[in-house]
Each structure stands twice: as structure tokens, then as C-alpha cells.
Amino acid sequence: MSRKIRVLVVDDSTVIRRLLTDALASDPCIEIAGIAANGKIALAKIPQVNPDLITLDMEMPEMDGITTLVELRKLYPKLPVIMFSTLTQRGAEATIDALSKGANDYVTKPANVGSVNAAIQNVKNELIPKIKAFCPWTNPAPANPISRTPIALKAATTIPSSRPGSSRNGRIDIVAIGVSTGGPNALQTLIPRLPASLPVPVVIVQHMPAVFTKHLADRLNQLSELEVGEAVASELVQPGKVWIAPGDYHMVTNREGNSVRIGLNQGTPENSCRPAVDVMFRSVAEVYGANVLGVILTGMGQDGARGCGFIRDLGGRTIVQDEATSVVWGMPGATVHLGQADKVLPLSKIAEEIIRETAQGRNVRTLVGAGT
After folding, report:
1. Whose CA, among 28, 207, 232, 290, lies 20 to 30 Å from 213?
2. Could you give the CA distance from residue 122 to residue 142 in angstroms, rounded to a whole number?
3. Helix or strand (DSSP H, E) at 8
């Protein structure tokens, strides 16, 4: 058996430390390397216990989570850190800040779950899969993988279309992006590189809870030339704007005459997600037909892989982030393994490719003008 994942739990609450250690220790692949009541103690313990990963509370006395993270990154730039944050406005804002300062991911503290056992189960469901994603040596091969024949790819690979006779070089009228684990930082790299003159709208599903998506949109809006906001039902979809699906709501597009508007619903989760990338991808493909560019960025699971197939079936095109630049190559990898990626690119090249794709079929005046 592979060695266990050693986790250092950092939290000032005795109750939360016990809950976390009980939940994590119940998994045969994980062992508790140590506990610490604040960041100062944690930094002293790291060289003593040699953890593979740290769970880090946001609000602690003496040295809080953000300060600890900044100091930790100076000494241990590659050590995975998962922030443990409250499902509040303040917690959401601090989490987005922590992700921009080097945290690998986050989970939210259980709230209103009714019992200690329910809280432990909640932590198992949310935290353990992320720990294993960042420490993959314990992961067995999936019993029912999405594809039994992985495709070996290099960055900037172009995958031939499986649709003979289709040029798939038509005009793009919307860009749809799906992303999960590692997404906030990926989006902070990608979206600010898109120009104000981008002639098409952009819609994004980032797997995040409510409240968090609003703070992510606000952060991206501060950094970008494009206007970025959390999606609002019935808002007109138009160039120059970027919409992020609000947590706990699927985002779709609805055609009304010559215009397209945002739709939000709380339909059944797909791939255990709401918002789900597959839901959004199917919707934009149904509304825009062949004029869709789907983009899959870093993330756990396989949400969006089949949606990319739907986009391509209707003549649209897809881009996937490569494994080397993905925090977790789950969603992008699943898309590739299904044969639904037209191009596989490093994150640094994706904005350039979006600009090139959306310029195709448009004259120069349109590209820098109204975007119609």
C-alpha cells in the first residue's frame, strides 16, 4: 500500500480540530501529522512533522490564516494548503484573497448540518477528495473511468475533428468557460488578458458556493478591462461583459426574438454540481448553435466533458487547459479522454487563442467596435 497522506490541521477551535481529525483519520489513506492552534505554532511544526498538506483556518489569534499563508509560501512554495473558511461574506472575501496569495483550494466549515456526525460526513465529502487530488499517490485507478484509452497530449496540441466534412471554422458569438479547483487563480490569469474590444460575451461556471461567486466576480472586475459580474436573471447577453454563475444556481441562456438573456434556475445538480458546466454548455449550444467556443480549465471531476461533446456535435469548438498548468487535471483530462477537445493549451496561451477565435469571420471595425 502507498504511504499515507500526512495532514497538519491548523485551527484555533478545539471543536473544529477534533471534528477535522476525526473525519480525516477515518480514511485509511490519511493520517494526522499534527495539530496547531494558530499560524505561529503551525510554522514551527512544519519542519518537525513534515506534512504533505495543511488545512488552514482563516481566523485565528496571534497569527491568522492569511498571514500564515504568506509566511508559509516564502519557505514552502509547493506545499499544498487548503483553507478552511466560514460561509459568510467576510469568509468569502478572505478566501478569494487567500487563493490569490497562494492557497491551493478551500472548503467551507459545516453550518446548520444538525449533528456532529453530519458535520463529520460533510467534511469527508468536501475535504477528503481535495486532499487526495493534491496528493495523488494514494489514488487507485477509477473502477469505471470515463475513458479506458487515455490520449497522450503535449501542450498546444490540435486534435482532429471527428466530424468529416465540417470545417468548424465559423464565427464565434459566445465564449463559455467551465472551471473548478484552482479556478479563481486561473480566471485571474485569463480574464484580465481579454481586451475591452472582445466582440463576444463570456459566460463562466466556477464551482463555488453562494456569496463566494459574488466576491470572485468583484475581484475579476477590478482586474479586467471587460465588465465582470455575478449573473442576474433576465440580463441581456452582450459583448464586453462577463457573467459568473451565482453559487447554487444553474446558468443558462434563453433566446427572446433577436436577443439572448441570462436564465438562472435551481434544477437538479449535475455531476454533483450546481451550477454545473454541462448545463451551461448545453444551453449555449442550443441557443448559439455552431457559434460557441467552449473552454475547460483546471478542476476536479468531469463536469463539462460531455457538454464539450454537445458543443462540438452542433459545430462549435473547444479549448482545454493542459495538464502541466492545471492545479487538477480532472475536468480538462476527462474532456480530452472523451475526444472532445479541439485544442489543448497552457493557461498562458488561452486568452490569445480566445482573441484569435473570436476575431475570425469579423472585420477589423467590428473587432474594435460594437461586436455584432
Report:
1. 290
2. 22
3. strand 5-10
- Topology of the domain comprising 157-368: Rossmann fold (3.40.50)
Torsion 272-274-276-280 (CA) sign: positive
What is the DSSP-derived secondary structure letter of residue 292?
A: E
Residue ranges in 299-361 assigned as alpha helix (H): 305-313, 331-337, 347-359
Report, as residue numbers or ranges, the catalytic residues: 180, 207, 303
Q: pLDDT per residue over 41-82, tens digit each?
A: 999 999 999 999 999 999 999 899 999 999 999 999 999 999
Length of the chain: 372
Does the fold of domain 157-368 match that of domain 5-138? yes
For residue range 120-160, list pLDDT tens digits in order: 888 889 999 999 999 987 655 443 334 333 333 444 454 44
Phi, psi at 276, each rounded to 5°: -115, 140
Q: DSSP readout, 153-177? A: --TTEEPPPSSTT--------EEEE
Separation of alpha carbons 307 and 285, rounded Å: 9
Q: Residue ranges per domain, the chain?
A: 5-138, 157-368
Torsion sign, CA atoms 270, 275, 281, 282: positive
* CA angle at 213 for the pair 207 and 214, rounded to the nearest 5°: 170
CATH architecture of 5-138: 3-Layer(aba) Sandwich (3.40)
The reported pTM is: 0.88
